[in-house]
User: Fold these one by one.
Assistant:
Number 1:
Amino acid sequence: MSDLLPLEEDWQRGLAIVAHPDDLEYGAASAIARWTASGKNISYLLVTRGQSGIDGMPPEKAGPARAEEERNSARVVGVESVDFLDYPDGTVEYSLALRRDIARVIRRLQPEVLISVTGEMAWGGHYLNQADHRHVALATIDAARDAGNRWVFPEIVEGGLEPWNGAKRVLMSGSPNPTHAVDVSDYLDRGIASLKEHKLYLEGLGTNADPAEFMTSFAESAGKQLGVRYAVAFEVFYL
């Protein structure tokens, strides 16, 4: 990984779009804590409620529990707006319907920046990326353009939401090809605390791995490339 550029922060509103509760907390949440502390407005959009993510808990119980953990986790990093599209966890497909649903929220919230998890086959360069992540990432990029075109999904305009083409950047965390990074030296602890709010999910993994060690390792690696103690890396796409 080559040296990373400092991420431009000349924006005010951001929308984070991911497949599951906990996706943002494995890194991006530390950057989100920095941004909300500086006065930026960040909202979350979850495509599913992560209802299939806990082996010992049936989906009808896991979904509401994980959604509540995500709301608690978001508050730790200064985010109050958390919405869910209620797609089925584990079987999210790239589709026109998904693009339309994401575009509708983009038009409603009018973000300048979108934040998601990489759509590459490998997450973090080493771990097989889930299908839900890949499909949501691609749909997010396409929906960013859809949101600005009144002739794509005209039913959204008919529903009262005018086109919004102000989302000029998409930031993908966990990418094996990062281009930029954010200094989170003062905010990594809040990112770790936000991940620890996912108690049921972490217990369900059946691992003794410490989230603090995992996140600190990634943050140190990105920090070296940025010239700071801790950083979160992103692959940045410009629209």
Number 2:
Amino acid sequence: MLPSAAPPTSNATRTPTASPIPTVVDDDLVVDANGRTLHMTCLGEGAPTILLEAGHPSAGLQQFLGFGRAFTDLLARERRVCAYDRAGYGRSDPAPDEPRDLDDVTDDLRAALAAAGIDGPLVLVGSSFGGMVVTYYANRFPAGVEGVVLLDVPAPSATLSLQELPEVAWDHPSNREHVDVIPEFEHRLAKERFPFEAPLLVITATNGQSTIEDQAFWLDWSATSSQIEVEGGHSVYEDSPQSVSAAVLEVGSP
């Protein structure tokens, strides 16, 4: 016979609530000599800082603090985690009216981190198109980068054309950050490898934008690389926030 339950107390039926996650950065950060700004928000505390880089088009704050908030909150309970809007989105200033390449985008990120007082250590997490940004950043600015994570990032294409995707032209109205996607991102990274020293984790979704074999393209960019498959679609961090956040937190851990 089971022992009888203790009589309920005034606290017995309350659901414990997690401690609120502090917002440690929420600011417009100057990224060039003309005073252009990007808006960045950082939650939580602890190192290494996790920097979330959005896909294209880049409304990073909506992506990670809106649709992907469950994933971001799981990270922020352990570390400082930052997301930002690239040029032309949210509270970030418009992009310069010219084609923008990988150097332009990574210059913006580096300047935003410096303006926020974040100089490392960093774990860079790129979703989709954002994976191209973080891999290039790790090659170009390796100091302080402790790890790189790709969230369902297809291999770049050496043959993609504007006839197939006219909306990615740098001057298309929907491309508010003016990134020159096909020649300066897809073609360039398909033809030229930019290796880095930091450990790399490739997370491929079971029902994502491409296969695990396709995304294995990235593995030789780091001598310390691995790949896992996680249940979900292209926004795998939304579909499996616990699995993806746990994997991210392992990268760059002591």
Number 3:
Amino acid sequence: MFATSVALSNLRACVILVVLAFHSVLAYLGSNPADPIPFDKPPYGWLVFPIVDNRRWFGFDLFCALQNVYLMSFMFFLSGLFVWPSLARREPGTFLWRRFVRLGVPAALAVLVLMPMTYYATYRVTAVDPSVVAFARHWFGLPFWPGGPIWFVWQLLALNIAAVVLLRGLPRSVDFLSRLSSSAAAQPGRYCCGLTMASALAYIPLALTFDPWRWVQYGPFAIQLSRPLHYAVYFFAGIGVGAYGLERGLLAADGMLARRWGVWLVGALAAFLLWMAMTALTLQEERATQLGVQVAADLSFVLSCATGSLAFAAVFLRFATRRWRIVDEISDRAYGMYLVHYIFVVWLQYALLDSDLFAPAKAAIVFVATALLSWGTTAAVCRIPLGSRLIGAERPMLVRAP
């Protein structure tokens, strides 16, 4: 098995654990609202903070701020790596059908079944009548159908459709994306600059037009208005890296990105601190409307996102090229864990509301229990043939470009 393939498998496991940790600590942020958020009053802040605990720790704010900058972009990048190898050996219709079965069907089931069960805990926190019947009345009275973290799966499906249209409709686009990645193994800094500039062009106009933090909800579909094109840049960047050849490109285990992991780690930390400083300026009333400050904050975001993503990859390419059984198990179940984890997070946070434990202890309990329950649930579902087909482990093929 290629060293890059092992590192990416380990990275996949780590990413899903970071996602679980991110959601596990949201109830305990120091910046959370002072009181629980009413269920049926706009702007429906419980979509972001489904449970608000009175135990807080500011360290979780720093952790979540870091993940908010780069994590989802990096997940779109990783999702794009094996798109071209898969599409190249299948007809477009077959590829799209497999993507629909893999992404669309589980997402629909999660939204229709798991999300009402998840948010029932949120409703109970402020409900006068906590019964299931009363909850159903409030739920169907909402102007949308909350989808929680499933927004990522919907956007990923849309990007897969866009990839088929582009890569099959314009065959030379694959060569173009591949060429953009061709020098990345030897010059990852140059690649980072290109990625930063591309995402800046995609992100900044939307961030200036809309509030960078603003989400909109259409039925079960949620979109952060400033980021759809930014995520598309990372997804197609992943396609380009995968099309060029993982073992000889940016993610080569012996490439310059992996060799200089320390430099990338320091650079990512510096870029993140810069983003924090610029974002703090945008929160000052006298500077919030200054165009220069807004643009500087948006530029620092795309820079921090690019350096953070590449630093994360660099560390795993350098230190995680060995296989561990438990990590393989998590990697194989990562997609299913993503789909089901939120119900465990929210109900565990709800169950601990009256506990006198301090915030890090509560968060640790929620994280560990969520990880175990999510893995166990996914493993159980995958023992069913249909469940295995929908959310079972995929074994993508590593290919070398000629």
